[in-house]
Fold these 3 entries.
Entry 1:
Amino acid sequence: MLLDSSGAASIIFPNLGISIGYFPSTITLFGKFSIAFYGLLIAIGMVLAVVVAMAWAKKTHQDTDDYVDLAIAVIVFGIIGARIYYVLFTLDYYLANPAQIINIRGGGLAIYGGVIGGIIAGFVVCKVKKIRFLRVFDTIVPGLALAQAIGRWGNFFNREAFGEYTNSLFAMQIKYDEVGGVVTDLMKKNMVTIDGVQYIQVAPTFLYECALCLLIFILIVIFRRFQQYNGEAALWYLGAYALGRAWIEGMRTDSLMIWNTDIAVSQLLSVAVFAGAFVLLIINRIRLARKSWEPDFEKVLSPGAPGTVEYSKERHAAKKARKKNGSNWETYTVEGEEEKAAEEISEEASEEVPSEKETPAETEAEETE
């Protein structure tokens, strides 16, 4: 076990009998570049999320190239959304230090902001590509849950995002001089000294959320064979994560609060998201049971359906034809190109058929002239 200069462990799980030696929050490359483990783990999570989404997309005959475009947009705007969410609810600090707003290396990303930003970006990309957003959302949520599970370990390396003092089975002790989160009076009151080193004892909420997200990932992968409509897997994810997050957020000591209140914004949002997802799941299942709703849903897309490789190729070919004809100002749709082609064929056919008012003799006379 690697220890620091004092010979003390950085983190101890006293009720499990586990001691973890010293480990830094950053890694240095080539003696020049410092990379935070938090950022590194988020990056790994994002890559795995894309891999998982593309694997499922391929299995269901979706065009995996669409998910490359989606990944770029969702990741970029997810990070922007995560930062905006954090800044909005710590506004006093950033109004006094505006230059720090873009300093994400200093920390300050909120997962809910990331999810909201990613959803908005994904919706826009789906609209542009004319593919079904809810089917895409269903495809990416298992990978999203896995990415969250991995990213939460960044809090472990930073010694942050923990809960109030506890003496439960998973209670975690952190060296006081290495703490990156908020230390409460109750933690200070129950501080322990081991071999001359002071430790606070807290609830490892990062570990709880990691376990929650892993469970969501596993359950969606197992049970999505029973999915009955586009958006159902997304509702499972939203409802399950929001329920767990509402409980976990109640333990944390560093929650973002609604301005000038003691209300944790993420906890309030979690309750609202869970209620909305739960109600929609119940209503939709009742509609299905009563057979009052027949959703247009395919577990595996048929060739040529929106979102397939064939559909993308058809759109690309039609787009090239449209550009060749100099009609770049028109709004592009595959269906529009098909209708236009049908009209042209109809017009050509009508030009070849003699008018009903002309007799065959009159037609022959015109040809002779």
Entry 2:
Amino acid sequence: MSPFLPYGRQVIEDDDIAAVVDALRGEYLTTGPRVAQFERALAETTGAKHAVACANGTAALHLAARALNLGPGTATIVPAITFLATANAVRLNGGDVIFADVDPNSGLMRPQDLAEALARAPGETANAVFNVHLAGQCGDLAGIRAIARDHHLRIVEDACHAVGTTYTSHNTELCRVGDNSFSDLTCFSFHPVKTIAMGEGGAVTTNDETLARILALDRSHGMTRDTADFVQPDEAFGDDREAYPWYYEMQTPGLNYRIPDILCALGLSQLKKLARFANRRRELTARYDRELARLSPHVTPLARTPNVNAAWHLYVALIDFRALHTDRASVMRKLASQGIGTQVHYFPVYRQPYYRDIDPQLTLPGADEYYRRTLSLPLFPSMSDEDPARVIDALATALKL
């Protein structure tokens, strides 16, 4: 029988292992020089002025919410199709979440979805929008920004699916996800199923020096050893006006969202392979698209955003299970029996019990329609050229097409 294909899998090579071993033999297991090296490399890769690495993508989102003061008395727009962490980052900071609908064929929030969510904001005001990129592609960034700026919203890109994605803006300029051309902050994840893997790991990029400093302080207890920042000179300095070597200050409570050197060693090695991994994902996606065409119209690929060159994190098929007189769970079990793993991205967050209790009357038809049809098929760089055909053959059998 052919090897089992999970929906996602990391690709770890000998040089990645050697990089981690070298870090393990060094002086630092927690925060050390490789953290700063990774931040510089990520900033260069994305085109941002600053990158702040942290423990994981969830930490990145939470740090972003805290940096923008999205706490009690604030409201943030979040699309309903995303992972729990996007909304939870705001709630954990005490802010309110207003869920936006999405395009039922792409899962992405459109400008009109943002506008409709804003109309439901308390007192018709909101403070921020978390613009989620799904499966590797982003939506209408310029359109989202135009509405956000008209309403004085801060913009966070949840790009946990989209490291390596590029797009052409309205003025034909080539942009990179993470360069913050259309946002204040961009959050990334380096979970093993993402385009590059660090085991766990995340980062926030920004072009705002003040925000970068807030992020860096907040990920490490709010603690600073920079003498220029000290506000208690009588505690910090001796009679010789030299800072005490043990002294540090905390002016605002922070978190422990630091990332260790050993993970950044892996991240540095993987980041060098980003272009190769992204291109391979594009090649496999193109093969899937060709194979999937024979299952149309009951099965179609994810709708594509114009002018986006996605570094595909997921390959999503939209399946009309009702028209085919079957159900998703049965199809997933049949595929698993053939050695093919699948997953659903995502159950609409607004329908989770916690959020349903907050707004029990809310319905978002685009998100519900997307969820009803979505199924993520295996996609990772070490798949063979023949694997997409194998997956679609098995899918066709499971659907009796």
Entry 3:
Amino acid sequence: MSALRVCVEGVGLWSPRLGNFAALQALLCGATPPPPAARPAAATLPPNERRRAPESVLLAIEVAGQAVAMSGRDAATLACVFASSHGDQATTDYMCRTLAQAPTELSPTRFHNSVHNAPAGYWTIATGCHAPSTAVAAQHASFGAGLLEAVTLALSDQRPVLLVCSDTAGSGPLRKVTGCTQSFGCALLLSPTPGEATLTQLALTLTPLHAATPLPEPLASWSDTNASAAALPLLALLATGHGCCELGAAATLGLHIALENIA
């Protein structure tokens, strides 16, 4: 099939070791960027919501806000795709323990935060966004599946789309199952056409699933600590400004992605 082409206008990134996309660029240039704050700032949320929101929401809102700020777009107008392999693992662990031991003590607020599209809800309410939103989960292929969904939406509707992919560290028995030992989140602002804010253009081709592209040495082990860190091969390309990579988008489906500079 012919390649799907979409432009990148903004990039968001947060982990306990990197607080934004500029920190990743510095790391790949050999520098040692300062560590971020202990928790994502998520400044897009009103203060009361920020205090009550779980880490899973703060992480997603933080990277979404970074990508939108870089693009200069109005968040209220953006369709969005929120992807996560495991959702809010701490809340899921809490709910399982509470239902097993004292089900009548289950917190309605914690239950509200357990749904997979909770970050999308917080984001659209905080930004006043009435554009379409989608929540995606595809285990370790969640970033690739979310990217394919966002690119398809951007091209079919000819509109900019915000993609967010994030997972927090595992909690309780889930940590052994998911293997998530640290939080990681990223976001891309995608547009179907070039504009003043365009950073680069992606050419995506569907392929049979092959091995994921190896990461450069400073990041080599990071993808083992969080399923959403599967985005790192593409983020590394965006940070260096050239090259291609392959990502998983489903159990047997891959995405070959090449960066194309726009003159």
